[in-house]
Amino acid sequence: MAESSENGGPDVAGESGADTDKGVEVFVEARRPVGGGRWVVLADDTVWFEPDEGERRPALIPASTLRNGPTWKRLPSSD
Question: What is the C-alpha to C-alpha distance for residues 38 and 32, in angstroms, rounded to an integer?
Answer without folding.
Answer: 13
